Each structure stands twice: as C-alpha cells, then as structure tokens.
C-alpha cells in the first residue's frame, strides 16, 4: 500500500520492491544499487521517491559477507579470485555463492549474467 511505502521511507529504507516486480528487474536493481544508485519498484508506473543515500533492498536479506561475495560475483570474479580477495577457502566461497544465488533467485552465474544483460 502507499502507506507502507511512506512508512518504509520514513524508517530509513533504501528502496522498495512491489510484489509485481519481475525477478530480472530485481537483479538489475541490485546491480545498480551495488554501484551506488537507487532501486525502487512501486508497481504500476509510479516515479521513484526522492531519497538521499540508498542501500540494496532485495539484498537486505543478504548477510554482509554474502553482499561482499555478490559484489565480486557481479564483477565476474572466479571463486578463486573471491577466495583470495576475502581470505576465504574455495569451499566457503562456493557455499556463500550458492546462498547468494538462491536468495537472488537464480540458479547460478550463467543465469545471473543472462539477467544482467540489457533488454
């Protein structure tokens, strides 16, 4: 409801995703937010609300470490590169990546990158 959106903004939410938002758009939005932009999907064709510093919305369910792994996945880093960058074992990176893919709603890198392509 519009009231819920207003309440979210007043509470400091970084954005909003309406249930009608297609998964592809959520992935695009997360990618944008990780690059410092905002992401708002209010349903219909409503313009996004004005807001200062925004943080990922769909990614709010990601832990801090999962967000780090997700950012490196979006940069197309290999598991080995991610492990080295974050000082993790290869298996730990695989575990984090698997959780990220599940939470974002993709089956793996291939589907993630396919969704990130411009329409």
Describe this structure as you would to a colleague.
By secondary structure, the chain is mainly α. It has 2 domains: 1-60, no CATH class; 62-119, Winged helix-like DNA-binding domain superfamily/Winged helix DNA-binding domain (Arc Repressor Mutant, subunit A), CATH 1.10.10. Helix content is 53%, strand content 3%. Strands 1-2 form a two-stranded parallel sheet. β1, α2 (23-34) and β2 (40-41) form a beta-alpha-beta unit.
Write the layout of secondary structure elements.
Blueprint (H helix, E strand, L loop, with lengths): L1 H9 L5 E2 L5 H12 L5 E2 L22 H11 L4 H8 L3 H15 L4 H8 L3
Parallel strand pairs: 1-2
Task: Write a concise synopsis of the structure shown.
This protein is mainly α. It is built from 6 helices and 2 strands.
Q: Which strand order does the major sheet show?
A: 1-2
Largest sheet: 2 strands, parallel
Structural class: mainly alpha
The count of helical stretches stands at: 6
Spatial separation of the terminal alpha carbons: 29 Å
- Strand content of the residues, in percent? under 5%
Overall mean pLDDT: 73
Shape assignment:
elongated
| Rg over CA atoms | 15 Å
Poorly predicted runs are 44-60
Whole-number total of structural domains: 2
Portion of residues within helices: 40-55%
